[in-house]
Amino acid sequence: MCDAFFDHLLRRTFPGGCFFAGAVLEMGTRPGPVKEQIAALQAEFTALIRRFIITALERQELPADEHPDALTFELNGIILAANTNFVLREEADALVMARNTVRRRLGIATSTSPPRRRRATSRPKGDAAVPAA
Asked: 90: exposed, middle or buried (C-beta count within 10 Å: 0-12, 13-18, 19+)?
C-alpha cells in the first residue's frame, strides 16, 4: 500500500501531492461539514492501513508482539512525510528514502544502492529508480 502511494506521488497525479494531505492542513482548523468529510476520509485511510497490518499479523508476516495502532501511526507518518518532502523538493529521492524506511520498519530488504539526486520532473524510464516492494 505504501509503495502504491509513493508511485501515485511519483506519477504526479496531483502536482501538489496528495490532495487529502493538503486538505487536512487547510481545513483541519475550520469547523464544518468539509472538515468532517476530510476527517472521515482520513480515518478510512488509516483504518485501511491498520487492516493490512492485522492481516499481516494473522498471517505471521509481522512479529506477534507488533502493536497495530503504533505501526499504523508510524506508516501513516512516513506517508505524510514522503508527501511533504516530495512536494517541497520535487526530488524522487524522498520517495526512495520513504520506501526504504517502510521496508526497514517492516523487516523487508531495502535497496542497497544509495539514492541518486534527481528532480522528480525528469522522470526515469519506468519506475527503475524507485523500486517497488
From this structure: middle
- Is domain 2-106 given the CATH code 1.10.357.10 in the classification? yes
Return the biggest CA–CA distance within the chain: 47
Q: Are 106 and 69 in contact (CB under 8 A)?
A: no
Q: How far apart are the C-alpha atoms of 1 and 50, rounded to whole Å?
A: 11
State which H helix or E strand residue 118 sits in.
none
pTM of the model: 0.72
Neighbours of 69 (CB within 10 A): 10
> Which residue matches cell numbers 512479529?
63
Report the C-alpha gap between 50 and 55 in whole angstroms. Answer: 9
The residues pairing with 91 across neighbouring beta strands, listed in sequence order, are 119
**Dihedral pair phi/psi, residue 119, rounded to 5°:** -80, 140
Q: Summarize pLDDT for 2-13 with one digit per residue, the tens.
A: 888 888 888 887
With 0-12 CB in 10 A as exposed, 13-18 as middle and 19+ as buried, what is 28?
exposed
What average pLDDT score do residues 23-52 get?
A: 88
Domain residue ranges of the chain, discontinuous segments joined by +: 2-106
